[in-house]
Design goal:
With 172 residues, the chain is mainly α. The protein has one domain: dinb family like domain (Four Helix Bundle (Hemerythrin (Met), subunit A), Up-down Bundle). It contains eight helices and two strands; from the N terminus they run αααααααββα. The chain has a two-stranded antiparallel sheet. The longest helix has 24 residues.
Length: 172
């Protein structure tokens, strides 16, 4: 079950990242909406409504979750870059994934959001001075202080993690 839940492994928190690694993660975030769109472009509603594991989300919910999560991440990054170590607002992703929009809207809606959002997000990040990748926010739910460089690694992992979930279904 763990292999289905974490097909690429769990993210490791607390690592420091070199500027080159951070820039690679930003480049992946920039490319991700097109990669995701290509994978789900011609997928039927029946397949989109298939779960990647027992009691897991459907592919449709995964795509909508990516938009929800990355909207939150974008705002958190903007707060981090404009405030000194802000305490961010957590959200309960499981409840968001059970809302009607996540369960029933066409994935094209969230693909449009991700395309526009990642364009703005990565443009902002590409123009961040290297020293600012050490700026932080505090996540009160986890009690963890995240540096922007770690946030970039986390969200590049997040993209790959959920893409792997999608591929579990599409490979069958």
């Amino acid at each position: 079950m763990e292999k289905l839940q974490y097909p690429i492994g769990k993210f490791t928190y607390g690592n420091a990242y070199a500027i080159a690694e951070i820039r690679e993660n930003i480049a992946y975030l920039k490319a991700f909406p097109a990669i995701l769109a290509e994978k789900v472009a011609n997928v039927s509603d029946e397949v989109l409504d298939t779960s990647y594991r027992p009691y897991g989300w459907t592919l449709r919910q995964v795509v909508h979750h990516l938009a929800d999560s990355h909207i939150n991440a974008y705002i958190r990054c903007k707060l981090l870059l404009t405030q000194d170590n802000p305490i961010i607002n957590p959200y309960i992703e499981e409840k968001w994934a059970e809302m009607e929009d996540a369960k029933h809207l066409p994935v094209s809606v969230s693909l449009q959001i991700l395309t526009a959002l990642h364009t703005r997000w990565t443009l902002a990040l590409e123009n961040v001075p290297d020293a600012d990748f050490s700026r932080t926010y505090t996540h009160p739910q986890y009690g963890h202080v995240f540096a922007l460089g770690e946030v970039m690694a986390l969200y590049a992992w997040h993209c790959k993690h959920h893409l792997a979930h999608i591929m579990l279904v599409l490979a069958d």
